[in-house]
Amino acid sequence: MDLSNFTHPLGFYIRGFYALQNTEYYFIFLSVVYIITLLANFLIMSIIFFAESLHTPKYFAVFSLAVVDVSYSTAIIPKAIHTFLFNSRFVYFDTCLTQLFFVHYFCSLESFALCVLAYDRLIAICFPLRSNILNSNSRMTLIIMISWTVPLVVVIIMVSLIPRLPYCKTTVVNSYFCDHGPVFKIACGDYSPNWFMACFYTVACFFVPFAFIVITYIFIVNALLKIASSESRWKAFKTCSTHLTLVTIFFTPILVTYLVAWVNVNIDTDTRILNTSLSATIPPLLNPIIYTLKTEEIMEHIRKFAKKRKTNALC
């Protein structure tokens, strides 16, 4: 087949759920998740922004994670609501590529943001006497900028390979958004470069960060075991518990999803959509809630704010 003069299609049709009934209730649920995600993340960003005592490397990293959470949810949920609640499943080609870029970029940023927080814990526990030198505000800002740049390059290359593909069989995407794999796999030409970039993206943006976090905690556990007092050891470990919770919530479903895709295990479209949509939308919701409830500094500022509001109301 001569595909040299083949141009890309006008757009794609997002199929969404195949057999699941009453899916409109699921997307209403996602809309509620989105609203709470925005409120919770803007709350934590406001607290960090206005509380000068929280202008530290750790909370610079937390602020960055909150920005990523808002951006990631915004890249997915509003478009999904528009697509399925308002039955607007046709997506123009350029619009599809735009969403594909932002969803995968912010998803990878979520992974890198958790890496940055792991680095912060490593310095705080393993090098407590030198932490102010090794992990200053300026250095943390530079690390965050690098963590935003590396996945940007990878995702730009990955998305730029899509327009070269010919689509002569179908333009129906078996997902709930313009997902990279379902988009390039319906092409009728050779998509081996796209497959390679998909694998490289997965390894570089998820498996490598996860490995970095695991190695970080090996050093942290080793440092904790050297602490003589069990009470001091537990107190130091508690500073990591919040981060470990976030890592588990984010990486478990996403790594399982990619491993299943790699070994070519066939799972039905509805199960895959439920898994990927929940793993994409629930972590940005839980991250600020967990940080708020399990971080004493943030809770203290919330109590101060509530007390101030109550005093003003009485006056």
Produce a short descriptive summary.
With 315 residues, the protein is an all-alpha fold. Helix content is 75%, strand content 3%.
Give a structural overview:
This protein is mostly helical and 315 residues long. The protein is built from ten helices and three strands, in the order E-H-H-E-H-H-H-E-H-H-H-H-H. The protein has a three-stranded mixed β-sheet. Helix 2 runs parallel beside helix 5. The longest helix is centred in the middle third of the chain and has 34 residues.
State the main characteristics.
single chain; 315 residues; mainly alpha; three-stranded mixed beta sheet; 10 helices; globular
Describe the secondary structure blueprint for this structure.
Blueprint: E1 11-14, H1 23-50, H2 57-85, E2 90-92, H3 93-126, H4 131-134, H5 137-160, E3 172-173, H6 180-184, H7 192-225, H8 230-262, H9 269-294, H10 296-314
Parallel strand pairs: 1-3
Antiparallel strand pairs: 1-2
Helix pairs in contact: 1-2, 1-9, 2-3, 2-5, 2-9, 3-5, 3-7, 3-8, 5-7, 7-8, 8-9
